Amino acid sequence: MISPRHDNNSSSFPAKDSFASPPTTRYCCFVIPSRLALFGFSVIIFLFGAGFGAVGWVIANKLDKQLLEIERLALFFHILIYFLLVIFATIGIYGVVQKAARYTSLFASMILGQFVFNVASGALCLYLLFRNGPNGDPTLGGYRQCMDVVVAHPNDFFLRNLCEQTPLMKGLSVGLYVFMWLTEIIAAMVSNQYSSQLHEEAAQMEMLNPRPRESFYC
């Protein structure tokens, strides 16, 4: 009587990879993968940060002598904040491309930290744009001094609307600031989602391919 053959290679235990469920892909708005969403928001922040900073630089150059001290100070912080925002967005883009949880987490932390100063700077800029003098005239840079610059540049549509503080300029400024603030908040949330996904993927890889014991002491 021949005894049944036992295959030493087979095992009654489940395979190692059966213990590790595939990492869950996080989504933004239920449909967009968090990685793609984070890349998109980082690019938007980069472009808007560069654009906002450039606008502040143009205003500072064209109206430097006409601006009041508080207006000049507000512009300085405006340019500085958005210059830093461009750097932060670059870090976010790098973290997405390299799938580096360290950089995506750093991006979220920096965006949240910068957000407070961004709101304060934006509120001050909007206040200076909306305020009027005792007689109801615009006061940005001193209305007459500002209009002198407009007369010297009659084809500068942006500068004219800025000095006259037109409803178009006010509405556009409020809309862009609110859009930028909401974008930063969503970007920070998506960055945290994607960082969690990367940590889950790293934990699964560690379970499937554990490092040698001595590597923990290197």
Automatic annotation (TrEMBL):
Residue ranges of the region described as Disordered: 1-22
Transmembrane domains' residue ranges: 36-60, 72-94, 106-130, 168-190
Record key words, sorted: Membrane, Transmembrane, Transmembrane helix
Protein name: Uncharacterized protein
Organism: Macrolepiota fuliginosa MF-IS2
